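Quick illustration, no need to memorize.
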Amino acid sequence: MDAHLRAGVATYNDGHHHGAHDAWEDYWLDLESGTDDERFLHGLIQFTAAVHHGYGGNWVGLRGLAESAAEYLDGLPDDYRGVDLAAVRAYLRALTADPEAVERLGPLPLTVGGERLRLADLDVDAAFVAAGVLAEELPNYDETPVERAVAYARTDLAAGDEGSQFVTLVWDFVRDATNRGVVYQRLTEHVSKRRSRERDVDGLFE
């Protein structure tokens, strides 16, 4: 869960308020309904959706989501899995009372263990999660080569190849927003080459 949690927090803190929920949703859907972890992630998903609606000027949607998020987070410890839920709940109360306050307050930064995570701060496991989120959320990117690059990176690491070009490319895709387009092009080319080699090898044994 830690990699998904950190990836979502960093994605949100980097301004991708809508995309953050994707980092949590796949993990959340497999949790038993009503458990603390399920309520925690469900609440965060609703919280980030509320912020997203606020920046779209959908005050009715924001208020409904803020109320729902507060209900899911109610009763959880103020510091749950390192996230400052006391601050989140206070922010949700402010938005419920006055949805337009989001314009004055700005998005509440999320922290894990007191650290305001950004995409550049992620470790490799969280970066693997964030890569798929960004490919889905941002325009001009196809999820498929990014997902394949992540799969190759995981395979290479499992084989002990810590210098894998796929690990570097995925990490750069997540961390380097300025050059993300260039990194994506290189990533796509390397994925295509590796897939070609795999097809050639498979052909030898047919």
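The chain has ten helices and two strands.
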